Structures are given as C-alpha cells and as structure tokens.
Amino acid sequence: QVQLVESGGGLVQAGGSLRLSCAASGRTFSSYAMGWFRQAPGKEHEFVAAISWSGGNTYFADSVKGRFTISRDNAKNTVSLQMNSLKPEDTAVYYCAARDDMTTSWGAGLRDKYDNWGQGTQVTVSS
Questions:
Q1: How far is C-alpha 109 from the chain's CA centre?
Q2: Could you read off the pLDDT of 47-89 as tens digits, one per residue?
Q3: Cβ-count burial of 105 within 10 angstroms (0-12 exposed, 13-18 middle, 19+ buried)?
Q4: How far is CA 88 from CA 43, 53, 67, 120, in A?
Q5: Does residue 37 contact residue 61 with C-beta atoms inside 8 Å?
Q6: Considering only CA atoms, which of 32, 33, 21, 23 is closest in space to residue 3?
C-alpha cells in the first residue's frame, strides 16, 4: 500500500497552465503504475493520464492529449501532471491513483484497476 497526497491545484484562467504533483509514501513506489483521474461536479470519474512503473509508457485521454503530460521521479516518489492550454471543461477535482503493477497492461484508463487513491486537489479554470 502507498499513501498518496496531491498538490498544485488552484484557480487559473483559460489558456493557462498548472502542474499537479502526487507524493507517495512507501518504499516500493517504483513498482507502482500511476494514474490521474478527475471528477467534475455532477459527473463520473474520468481518466486523464497514466504512466507505467518505469515511466516508459504513458497514456492520455483524448480530451487532454497534446495539452497534458505525465512524468514520474521514482527517486523522489512523485508523479506529476503538467497541464497546459487549460480549458474551463478541465475544471474538476483531480485524483492521483496507484496500482502495484510492473506491466504495461494494467488497464491504465480503468478506475477499478487502481487500489490506492489520494484525497484530490481542486482545479478551476475560469473563462
């Protein structure tokens, strides 16, 4: 098990950028596949991005492809989500998630494949 804490959310104007970070506790962070999901008011959780344990494979929702990037630093037990060209429809609570999995086929976009979740950080994009 890992404990996850997100940070970096806030209020930004459309077209702006934010960088979310997720800090993980535990010695085996490097064996975890990591994902970001978001939930807008009144909507279901939506997959945003994911990265494999080594960082060698990344996955993105079509809605953020080309605007968001995901990276990880296994030495620092962190995963980051760089969000550029933000749109009002990106407004949501963003959650970091982890799965103890060293494959590249864990089901990156599937919420129920992740076993550990952070508390979330609010991102608000004004028009």
A1: 11
A2: 999 999 999 999 999 999 999 999 999 999 999 999 999 999 9
A3: exposed
A4: 15, 31, 14, 18
A5: no
A6: 23
Q: Which residues contact 71 (CB under 8 A, 6 or more apart)?
A: 51, 55, 79, 80, 82
For 42-51, what is each residue's pLDDT tens digit? 999 999 999 9
Specify the length of the chain in residues: 127
N- to C-terminal Cα distance for the chain?
A: 39
Q: Which of 67, 122, 58 is nearest to 94 (CA)?
A: 122
Tens digit of pLDDT for each residue in 1-51?
899 999 999 999 999 999 999 999 977 899 999 999 999 999 999 999 999
Contact by Cβ (8 Å): 36, 50: yes
